[in-house]
Predict the 3D structure of the following.
Amino acid sequence: MDPQPDLSAPPALRARRRVAALVVALLGPAGAGLVVLGRQVRAYAWTAAELAALALSRWWPLPAISALVLLAMASIADAGLAAPRRRGVPGVLATAIALAAFLAVVFLARFAERRFVAEPYRMPTPAMVPALLDGDHFIVDRMPGDLARGDVVVYRAPEAAAEPGILFAKRMVAMGGDLISWKDGHLFINGADVSEDGPSCSGLPGVDPAMPCVARRERLPGGASYVVLYLGKAPAVPFSCPSGMERRGDACLVPPGTVFLLGDNRVHSFDSRIHGPVPLSAVAGRAVGIHLSYGDGRIRWSRMGLSLRAR
């Protein structure tokens, strides 16, 4: 149980503790501000709730992402409104020790969850516009099970990349054994044209109205569909078999144990057309939903909670 509030504490001391708690709550993880007030039980309860919401995002991304946002705001409000407690954490040194212990536990718990369950990730480039914008923060399922065509996945860049080993996010369009080809901006998988007319570019997120744009919808084997863009030039992107793929007539064979990944922003994406197919062992997880979006100096509220699963 948390100790009872020491109402005999000087008002100035209680006020300073409130201010310190609010600052720590704004800068630290959920519950950190409550440690400053001596309310460790509530602090760990907030952390447990946050970890549970992140874990649940694997199965229910939209409710879990909404819960994460609400938990962050509610924990800050709780730290700002809670009464200071001195007994149990009587001084500055003891408070610092308790806060350090709390942060260590949170770090270890988050490390384990992000390594094995779910992990937040930030999109650093426009390569996945319109599905993902530069500045979108999304949840990655680290235990995705069987991947399917159309999934947005995070993977470690191959040796051909300028920075090998960094994480990329692209869409999986083909898997081992598939034949893939490209003609006049149309994607062919196993001989079937999966491209069709898409929506108007006007109104699509991340698209500059002044830039020439062609949008197409791709419908993959299995039914997954999504919108791709060709910005700044006509969609006649040349295609040849990249390294690691065998030519079969006019198509290229995706080797067993690998996947073929493309950015939705086709003209502005470094993907399997350049670095070749990606081993399944390099896939870190599947993107499930956006929990925060920040760009152009503001929070993009309308993007929070969007699912990244192909329809």
In short: DSSP finds six helices and 16 strands in the chain.
